Structures are given as structure tokens and as C-alpha cells.
Amino acid sequence: MNQTERIQNLKMNLVYRILCLVALMGSMNLTAQQPDIPGQVSEGESLKNEAYLFAHMTHEDYGRLYYSASLDGLHWQRLNNGERVFDEYQGHPDICKGPDGKYYILGNTSDSSPDINIWVSDDLISWKKHGVYTPNLKQTPDYSEALQRIGAPKLFYDEASAQFVMTWHTPHKEGTKTDPERYWASQRTLYVLSNDLKTFSDTPKKLFDWNIGTIDVIIRKEEDTYFAIIKDETYPTLYWPTGKTIRIARSDSLLGPYSFPADPISPNFREAPTLVPSPNNKVWYLYYEQYPGVSYGLSVSDNLNGPWYQASGYTFYSDWDKYALPKEVRHGCMITISKKEYNQLVEKFEIVKEEFNEK
Asked: Which residues cross the membrane (predicted)?
């Protein structure tokens, strides 16, 4: 065999090995499993958060109250045969547990309604009217141009100050046929304080001193820092690439000043963030909706300062999904509940078994 033939044989052998390696890697990729989402209880760890409730609306019945539940914060199942759990409720569901151990939920019949309605429950099963708050939006300092619009009221109880803070978004510009987005870009987050959700601070105030559109704001606290998780409501462009994403601002104080929002932790066109701690209480699960009712995303971090990564899920393929929500769910809020409360909800409403595709 001459030198030329030997070189040719070496080349053919190398090509064959490369093809075998590619085939092997392709075969491995078909069956490979990505790492599981952290935060679940491992051997030797104690269970800190026993169960979870997702109070939400649906694609077909927007603005009404439905429940899904979970034992791990990742895999959710509908309750009550996928039907409403409280017919009187209207709004974007947001539930907060008060210092009295009772649960409070906020709602409003439409953005143009002047009232924020408040219901209370001992068990998350039976709700009764607690109060009504009607803000005088025109009295908001430095916001006399506010329109009579109240969007998606949210509630947070601050143990340090023993107060509830109620937030919502209000715009100051009407949309037009040529510029409908200016309505959304003009949204500003307002708040009031209350000790009992029956009486409230005198006038609404702006929560942030930076001048960008924000909606769907929730406040949470980790150690001594307050975090405002927001939707950046400016439309995304080359000059505002953060538009329609979930971002986080921080403060040492409940009412700010809050830092300018950090870089997005979601893709564009996501809204309605909701946050729960993992079962072992060491990781945060931040869910958000890709609207209008397209899918749900999940970002994961071991602290609210980040970094965050996006988990794989909501594909309805059981061998790919690391988290799973029922089809057609729309946004609301997730909270931790006890195993006893979970059992009571399941006993009352029953679980709907979800079907998944198998590859």
C-alpha cells in the first residue's frame, strides 16, 4: 500500500468514526433527560412548604375564579372539574394571607369600574364580602391626569409595618387608532395602605419614581429587602428591548425608593408574574403567562437577586416537561398552603386528572 492509499484509508476511517460519534450523540439526545428543577425535598431535608394553590382565570372564562393545586409547586392539577369555585368573583385573582390567618382576595368587575372589591375566607372554600375600596384617582399626587381605570389590584401584607399594601395600575392617556400602545405605556403603579382592609390611607400614591409603564406589580420580601416584580409595559422595540417582559426592582423600604428595574428575567410578551418558594424553601419559582393565553413560563433562582434561568415545561410531553399546568389556564396568583388545607380543597372540589402526550 503506497503513501497515497494509506492517507485515503486514514481519511475514510476518520469519517467513519465521526459518523458513528454523531449517530451516538443523536441517539443519546433522543433519550437524554435534562436536570430536574431544584428546590424539591431530597433525602435528609425537611419539607418547608407542603402544598400550593393557584387561583386563576381561564381562556374561555376570563376574569372569573378557578383553582388548580400542587404538592410540589411544579405540577398543577385543576380542581372542581375545571369549573368556577366562586361565582360572585370577578377580576384578576390575587390572594393574600393576613395576620389573622384569614385569606383575602381582591377583584374588580372591569378596569373602568371605580371599585376594588375585597372578600375574606377562613378556608379558601367559602368567601364572603369584606369591603369595598373606591380610590379617588384624581387626588393622586403628581398624577392629576390619571384616567378612571383600575387594573389588576394586588395585595401584600408587610409584617414589619403591620400593614397591607394594595397596588394596581392606572393610565393617563387614551389609546388611539394610530397609537393604541400609548394607553399601555402610560400605565403607572399606584398604592394605598391599610391595617384592616376596611379603612385606607387618604389618597393613592405612585409606588415608583421612575417614569416607565408598569402593570401587574407584586411585592415580596426576602430577608431585609423588598422586591417589586413588575411587567415592563412599554412595547418592545430596538430602542426598548425590555418591553413586555418581567423585571425586578429592589428597595430597603416597603414604599421605596425602588431601584430602576433590572434586566428581564423572561422573554418579551410575558405578564402576570406570580412567585412561590420551593418545597424545601431554598429556591424561588417565578411563573408568568405568555399572552394571550398561549403558554406559561417558569424562571428559577435561589434568591430574588438572581441569576434566573428558564425551565422547560408546558409542552404537554411528559418526558420533556419539568413543570406542568393545566391547558387553558390564564393568569392569577399562586400561594403556599398547608397539607391540611390542600386535603380540604381536594375533598371539596376534587382533582381533575390531566392527560399528557407521550413521545
From this structure: 14-32
Which CATH class for the 51-349 domain?
A: mainly beta
Read off the pLDDT of residues 176-225 as tens digits, 9 standing for 90 and up: 999 999 999 999 999 999 999 999 998 999 999 999 999 999 999 999 99
Mean pLDDT throughout 229-245? 97
State how far the Cα of 166 lies from the Cα of 194, in Å rounded to an integer.
8
Q: What is the mean pLDDT of the chain?
A: 91
Asked if 164 contacts 197 with a C-beta cutoff of 8 angstroms, the reply is: yes
Distance, CA of 308 to CA of 40 (rounded, Å): 17
Residue recorded with cell 416607565 = 212
Number of Cβ within 10 Å of residue 19's Cβ equals 10
Global pTM reads 0.89
pLDDT in tens, 82-120: 999 999 999 999 999 999 999 999 999 999 999 999 999
Using CA atoms, how far apart are residues 209 and 211, in angstroms rounded to an integer?
A: 6
- In 5-146, the DSSP E strands lie at 51-58, 66-70, 77-78, 94-97, 103-107, 116-121, 128-133
> Across the strands, what pairs with 358?
none
286-290-291-294 Cα dihedral, nearest 10 degrees: -120
The Cα 229–Cα 42 span in angstroms is 29
